[in-house]
Amino acid sequence: MSPTALVTQVDPGPGLATLVETGRTTGAEEVLFWVLAPIMVIAALGLVFARRTVYAAMSVVLVMVCLAILYVAQEAPFLGVVQVIVYTGAVMMLFLFVLMLVGVDASDSLVETISGQRWIGVVFSLGLGAVLVGVVLTARGVAPRGLEGANADTNPVGVARVIFGDYVFALEVVGVLLITAALGALVLTHRQRLEKRMGQRERAEARVAEGAVLTPLPAPGVYARSNAMDAPALGPDGRPLDSSVPRVLRVRGQERSVADVAARPIDGTEHLIEVDEGLGEVPGTGSTPPERGITGEEPIR
Amino acid sequence: MTSALASVPAAAAAGSAIPATGVFEYAWLLIALPLAGAAVLLLAGRRSDAWGHWLGVLASGGAFVVGALLTVVMMGAPLEERVQDVHLFDWITAGAFDLAAGLRVDPLSLSFVLLVTFVGTLVHIYSVSYMEHDAHRRRFFAYLNLFIAAMLLLVLADSYVLLFVGWEGVGLASYLLIGFWNHEKPNAVAAKKAFVVNRVGDVGMLVAIMLLFAAFGATDFETVFSLADGANEALLTAAGLMLLLAACGKSAQFPLQSWLGDAMAGPTPVSALIHAATMVTAGVYLVVRSAPVYAGAPTALLVVAIVGAFTLLFGAVIGCAKDDIKKTLAASTMSQIGYMMLAAGLGPIGYAFAIFHLITHGFFKAGMFLGAGSVMHGMHNEVDMRRFGGLRRYMKITWITFAAGWLAILGIPPFSGFWSKDLIIESAFATASGEGWQPWVFGTVALLGAGITAFYMSRLFFMTFHGTQRWPGHRVSQTETVDEPVQDPHESPALMMWPMIILAVGSVALGGVLAFGNAFERWLDPVLGYTEHPDPVLPIPVIIGATLLLVLLGAFLAWRQYAAAPVAVVAPRGSVLTRAARRDLYQDEVNETLLMRPGQYLTRSLVFGDRQVVDGTFTGLARLVGGSGELVRKVQNGYVRSYASTMVAGVVVLTAVVLAFRI
Amino acid sequence: MNLSNYLVLSAVLFTIGTSVVLLRRNAIIVFMGIELMLNASNLAFVTFARMHGDLTGQVVAFFVMVVAAAEVVIGLAIIVAIYRTRRSASVDDANLLKS
Question: How far is CA B235 from the centre of its chain?
Fold first, then answer.
């Protein structure tokens, strides 16, 4: 019995019963349905209400996996597998890729910008749901036949017969569509280069032209009492070099001045030390920030 | 003396036209010469500034020579060959309608040709000097030539349609020349007024042409006149009245006379040529030319006579009150054309006299206008007669030539006007039927008109050339001093003098020459047919005597008031009639109240209705669409989710409908 | 239990997917809502197949999956392209269609 023949046999018949009254499921399937259906609805609602896009994506994944299970339960194991592979495996992962590309933390503001759109959306959605459910509940149909006959040679074989039999042309067209879509994605995401590509040479030349320091920056100072990174080194002229302290420490204000690490007599023995009058106070030490170093290092941002 | 003979249709008596032969085939030169002159002058531009005026004179003079030649040949031709038709070209051919453009050369048209080209040439010569200091003299001559060409086309046309072309041509030339100094607004307004009023008359012309075409299927004189004999009287009456309307417009007859006074805004030579001698008489020509049509429509003819009689008095009354020398002459022209119309309205017995008076009037009125131009030329373009006075000492030749014209229009024997006007008055006292109220009324009006004419023309003459000097001159003036530029009246140059002298000679002698042995009447017989003149209701000597008496009385009154007594420089308030006459008997007000204002209100209400109702409907529709678009535009806010909401709404509604109705 | 329960579940999931499209502004989540709607319809197809005893429904569901995969590829590429130029993945920011 070919599938088309089956279709022709679909006629309401004299004992026209509503779909609601017709039923032929096993108890296990009923349990499965009633377990999965609430999960799916809640997960789908998560798509509506989730603030974070990743959560929304994961709830959609959940809905799709549950759907796959329902497909299997509905005598469509092939579709169930395809659902898992294509949807949850490929499509949703693509979604996640794009999410990462766009920015995971780009949480969606739920404040409505179009006036009245929220109410319009809710009303129309509820209306749509109402009419759809109404259609299902009032539709008249035939007693379910089940797919035992069609799935006699296992479901994939049956589906394959239909696809490569009746719908082989549509399949070819869909193949073309997929290739076109792939090309389209390439074209859409292709970025036209507007300026010359920036290579190593160009970068170096730009640095020189900018007047930046080309050599490595000086290392922090090493003193008798400290060799930590927060103390600046002294230049050839005896001034502290700001650039020898890592920028992060400078930004945070955590560097120390040379005076902090200078040799200091033990309490009560100050008089023992002969002060070198010729040197005087070390320039650049003390509470005031040092003047710009002679090396012309980059300014503190 | 029999009424049967008198009412013989002219065309039937005169016989039809024969194809032109010999020299008459060159009649087209009459029109072509001035037309070419106008074209050259207009197209050559400033290059022809130096010699353009002489080319204009030459073109006009050439036309006169051709016209004179044709006349001489015509005089030698036998009577039955005097109506000739020159075929020019096939003009309009549409189905059964086949109209050729042709010229009708006959004594009537040749009379006009001579008048137009002779007076026209004299005016051209006069203008060479008169317009000497005008920067646009060449353009002026181009327009004058254009006028001559159009006028000749008008009188020579052999069909109503071709006549209409000339009719509009002279209207155009008149418009251009009245508004020649159109940089001043009153002149431009006057030109526009003349144009608009003439258009009213043109409607009559067009309707008449359509009526004749609808009735006879042709518009050429030959066919129309032969078919008019015995045609439906109602039709002929309608056509006659429409032709009269056209004639009223062109000839400034009541009720379309209001433009003529304002037309004096044009240069004086224009007034002399167009608005005195030639163009304004085109209406008379039209009526006389259409004699066979009127022959079958006595009612229309009566209306012509009534209009003429009324305008005769109307113009005369206005002329008595005007202080502007040119406007007085314009009123006089109106009145004199009223005489011609009256004569034409008398039917076959008056046609020839109408044309006769037209010719003599063309001479003496043009002469007087040129004289007025000469006076203005010597008086810094002053036109107010109250600022003239005593000019005879300074402008001897002008005074003499003007006097010739004055005596001619008064009808003093043996000056021209006497011969023509007296014939009209006599005819007015006589009708073909010889009975009823008409002879008495028309005769009395004509008689009265002669008296009033004598008064106002004498007033003009005395105020200008006699009496006390009322202009500020080098000599001490007796009257009050006026803060105006000192006048230095002087005689005009020879180029202006000679045309005036020639016209004066014509004013003196032309009437007598043409009237000798009824020569002019017999000359026109081939066109108008021979007509016996019935006896007037009064004896002819009585009529002549009464006329002369009235004329002398009018002249005496004018002398007493304006020559013997001092004339106020500022016009006195005057009686009700005087004030009314000064304002053209309120004709402008009547026109404005009865026609212009209602027309404007009608236009305004139509515009209002158009804007509010018609436009309002469509702009309202557009605004509705725009407004709804503006509303719907808010839905197109660019947010994808709003569009998605719309889609979902559609799905919900569609599903709900399907669900509800189980489609 | 009868099979219409599956259909009701499908309708509910579809509705939730719709509301996600209407309510969320993050383009990626909106996209997931669309995927949810596709999956819900797939469930309906599978159920129909079972009702009618005909594998065509399953085949259609299979094609839906394939087309959905193609659509995801393109859609995400568009989202990435928009994100690159506008630094935002909100559907409301891409309202250049207006005016």
Answer: 26
Beta bridge partners of B101: B89
Residues B361-378: pLDDT tens digits?
998 999 998 998 888 888
C-alpha span between B62 and B118 (Å, rounded): 10
Give the percent of chain A with pLDDT over 90: 22
Strands (E), A106-191: 140-141
Residue B610 tokens, joined: 């158009």
The number of distinct structural domains making up chain C is 1
Task: Please state the ipTM of this predicted complex.
Answer: 0.91
Enter the pTM of the model: 0.61
Amino acid identity for residue B4 in this structure: A
Q: Which of A25, A67, A75 sits opposite C2 (nearest CB)?
A: A25
Is C18 part of the contact surface with chain A (CB cutoff 8 Å)?
A: yes
Q: How many domains does chain A have?
A: 2
Residue C77 lies in a domain: yes
The percent of residues above 70 in pLDDT, for chain B, comes to: 94
Of B8-17, B33-42, B293-302, the one with minimum mean pLDDT is B8-17
Work out the minimum CA distance from C5 to partner chain A, whole angstroms. Answer: 8
Residue-range definition of the domain harbouring residue A225: 213-272
Please identify which residue in the block is written with the tokens 């106070």. Answer: A281
- Cα separation, B55 vs B66, in Å, equals 16
Closest CA to B565 of B478, B500, B492: B478
Which residue in A110, A119, A124 has the most chain B C-beta atoms within 10 A of its own C-beta, making it the best mutation to test that interface? A124
Is C91–B641 a contact, with Cβ atoms under 8 angstroms apart? yes
CA dihedral sign, ordered A160, A161, A164, A169: negative
Task: Give partners of A (≥3 CB pairs < 8 A).
Answer: B, C
Q: What is the pLDDT of residues C34-88, one digit of tens each?
A: 999 999 999 999 998 888 888 899 999 999 999 999 999 999 898 888 888 777 7
Query: Which residues, in sequence order, are bridge partners of residue B87?
Result: B102
Can you say whether the dihedral through the CA atoms of B558, B561, B562, B568 is positive or negative? Answer: negative
Q: What is the DSSP string of B119-152?
A: HHHHHHHHHHHHTTT-TTHHHHHHHHHHHHHHHH
Identify the residue among B630, B640, B643, B645 best suited for mutation to test binding to C, counting C beta carbons within 10 A and taking the highest: B640
* B148-152, B227-231, B534-538, C57-61: the lowest-pLDDT one: B534-538
Instruction: Give the structural domain span for C82.
Output: 4-90
Q: Classify residue B393 by its DSSP letter.
A: G
